[in-house]
Amino acid sequence: MAFPPRTPACSAVLDWSMARTAVDWYRDAGGTGPLVLQVTNGREDTPDPMETSLAGMPTGIEQTLSLGADEIH
User: What is the pLDDT of residues 25-53, one digit of tens each?
Assistant: First the structure.
């Protein structure tokens, strides 16, 4: 199955290993469009969810770039 050119693939990242597998499947299936990942680092069970989210951003950006994503949301 081939994807039409420039069809964005969007996915929310829950686990980096699973994200890598999903990206590989998309590319192996012929997906060539932009890859858009939603990265959420915040956790509700921490004293300061916003602080947790901000602290995890550099890692999230690094991981997202390593997957070859075109956009981060």
Answer: 888 988 888 888 887 766 667 777 777 77
Partners of residue 39 on adjacent β-strands: 13
**Contact yes or no for 23/68 (Cβ under 8 A):** yes
Q: What is the pLDDT of residue 35?
A: 85
Which pLDDT score, from 0 to 100, does residue 10 have? 61
Question: Long-range pairs for 59-63 at CB < 8 Å and ≥24 separation?
Answer: 60/13, 63/13, 63/16, 63/19, 63/39
Contact criterion met (CB below 8 Å) for 35 and 63: no
Contacts 24+ apart (CB under 8 A), 56-61: 60/13
